Amino acid sequence: MQEPELTRKCGQTAAVKLAPSGASLARRVRICRGFGSKFLGLMFRRKLAEGEGALLVYSRPSRVQTSIHMFFVPFPLGVFWLDSGGAVVDRVKALPWRPYYAPSAPACYVLELHPRALDTLRAGDRVEFYEADPRS
Question: 16-40: per-residue pLDDT in tens?
């Protein structure tokens, strides 16, 4: 199956903006397309700065495949599950060392950001991805 259109033109990192306003949510998220990079996500990092994160990409909508764990992630995350068009279908504050989080609806993307992003991004909001500025 092919990657959803929303991220197909992005390289290894992307900037995330709220649509249609263009407000920045993150200046640099690592795009995880392969099994290994999706499994590792943000594991083994000591902290996550605001404006950074990870985007796990799946070829088709799923609740099971887009579930996450928080093993070896020693800090909370704002986790957003997105459909193929970038709309938020679910969100949660994921806490360290929890074994399982899954969306309430099928998703194609899992966006893991600093927990303060939960103050900005709500269910039904839409995000867009752009090539990240290499200087950031």
Answer: 999 999 899 999 999 999 888 888 7
For residue 70, the one-letter residue type is M
| Residue in the structure block whose two tokens are 């991805």 | 129
- Can you list the domains of the chain with their CATH numbers? 5-131 (2.60.120.1140)
Structure tokens at 42: 């943000």
pLDDT tens-digit series, residues 38-84: 887 888 888 999 999 999 999 999 999 999 999 999 999 999 999 99
How many angstroms separate the CA atoms of 29 and 6, rounded?
Answer: 14
The overall pTM is greater than 0.90: yes
Contact 68/41 with Cβ under 8 angstroms?
yes
CB 33 within 8 A of CB 57: yes
Cβ atoms 123, 80 nearer than 8 A: no
The type of residue at 88 is V
One-letter identity of residue 110: V
